[in-house]
């Protein structure tokens, strides 16, 4: 993940603007004992990043939007592929008991059910597994295929989607994780209908989003 890094001089410029706004580029350069040309690139970076605002014939202002604006901009431009993690997968025939064990061993909240080739067949959440244990069913014998959410009722995300688009899906659909998938060729089914198939190549979760927000907030 690419972070926005400010140089010590850029940080100093921000402090000068905060204390003296509005202030011209020439005045900033004078305080720094530099020429206007020497800080031209710094001022360009700070204004393009919306940390500073420039008004013609007036000078520079501190926008006050450094953290909020930059985090918003990064989330709207960063791609899912930049933060996706390795998915935890099981087979449709895996028992509910073994799925629960894997859930704890891998410390995840969602398992993706795949067939040969990593083709997505379903999703099993922590809640699904909990419900299965509350009944009288033998979880050692019950396959996850019985309780999983099947395609096409799975919310998907793609490597080139933005983080914002993925987060919106998580919020709108009230799910804990999304499989990151690569579309494959559609296959024919009975009745002449065609069904899209997807290869699972990653996952994005509420935890990965929270971790990203912390990293962006701490970026200088």
The sequence of SSEs as H and E is HHHEEHEHEEHEHEEEEH
Enumerate how many helices there are, as a single number.
8
Shape: elongated
Whole-number average pLDDT? Answer: 88
In the CATH scheme, the class of the largest domain would be Alpha Beta
Given as residue ranges, the uncertain stretches (5+ residues, pLDDT < 50) are none
Largest sheet: 4 strands, mixed
Helix percent reads 25-40%
Explain the layout of strands and helices.
Blueprint lengths: L7 H13 L4 H7 L8 H9 L3 E4 L3 E4 L3 H12 L11 E2 L5 H11 L3 E6 L3 E7 H9 L14 E2 L12 H11 L3 E7 L3 E2 L5 E2 L2 E8 H13 L2
Parallel strand pairs: 3-4
Antiparallel strand pairs: 1-2, 4-5, 5-6, 7-10, 8-9
Helix pairs in contact: 5-6
Question: What report would you give on this structure?
Answer:
With 220 residues, the chain is of the alpha+beta class. The protein has helices at 8-20, 25-31, 40-48, 66-77, 96-106, 126-134, 163-173, 206-218, and strands spanning 52-55, 59-62, 89-90, 110-115, 119-125, 149-150, 177-183, 187-188, 194-195, 198-205. The two termini are 14 Å apart. Helix content is 39%, strand content 20%. The protein is built from 8 helices and 10 strands. The radius of gyration is 25 Å and the shape is elongated. The chain has 2 domains: 8-64, Arc Repressor Mutant, subunit A, CATH 1.10.10; 80-217, CBS-domain (Roll), CATH 3.10.580.10.
